[in-house]
Amino acid sequence: MINYWRKFLSIGLYLVVFGTVACQGQKNEKEVVYRDYTHMEADLLDSLKRDEVKTLFRGVHVLRQQAQQVKESTPVRLESQRVEKKKLSPQDMIEKRRGSVLTVNKYHRAMMHPEGVTGWATAVVLSNDGICVSNYHVFWEFLDSTAKLNPRDSIMFVATEEGRVYPITEILSFNKAADVTFFKIDTRGDMLTPIPLGNDLPAGTGVHLLSHPEGYPYAYTNGVVMRTTTSDAKDPFARRMELTVDYAKGSSGGPIMDDCGNMVAMVSSIRAIFYSNQPPYSQQMNVKLTIPVSSLRMLMQGKNE
């Protein structure tokens, strides 16, 4: 019996030591990087003032004039990337997809307040030459002829996590019911990393999000598909995937991904459920509505892998 316990304790000690070494080795392989996002908007403002960048941007009035000429549901010539079939850990997914996720920003000219840059929303790269997608409501001021532009708004642009800025050159297509807008950016000679498109997912499936809640760029959250619904059975663009994934203002246009990092939906809106419609309201739940990737595919004209 004594020999048995000695053997048992030896094995246990071996596992503890081995496990500690393995964890330390894993920690060394993937060093934790602490990024300072507090200066992101100030750094983007500095980037906009560089001479080689100034001439690339179109003002909001020019972009609006171009957007007004685009017909709703115009087909976008775009070949999606090959679907990924290998499951990724959340850490690997963040690293592989962060280059495909851009911030959408506005430059405000100095009037009553100093000039500045404001993070506005999220966009996703779909082609290496600069075709991107975000929400209709992110660009509605350009697409809706009755909308009035904010007099402080001067330009709208996208940027990478490293602060590389890209001008939005034109709106390619949109669908209001689907809350989708395709647009083109000037990549300034860079080859971007497009995200692969997957398929719509049923309720109960795990999903992941990388987006920019206001003040918290490149935030990762996860959850599951809660329901798949439609507000109009006759209109395929009225379909929505409701999720438990956490997001907020600024996440609009962010990519919802499956376990392999394929984009399966896009952030759209939030609906709050309250216990009462009179004070005290007592909010109980937020329902997160997203656009299934099938809605994007219906606007794409080209070979889909």
UniProtKB/TrEMBL annotation:
InterPro entries: Peptidase_S1_PA, Peptidase_S1_PA_chymotrypsin. SUPFAM superfamilies: Trypsin-like serine proteases (SSF50494). It comes from the Bacteria. It holds the Pfam family Trypsin_2. PROSITE patterns: PROKAR_LIPOPROTEIN. This is Trypsin-like peptidase domain-containing protein. It comes from Butyricimonas paravirosa.
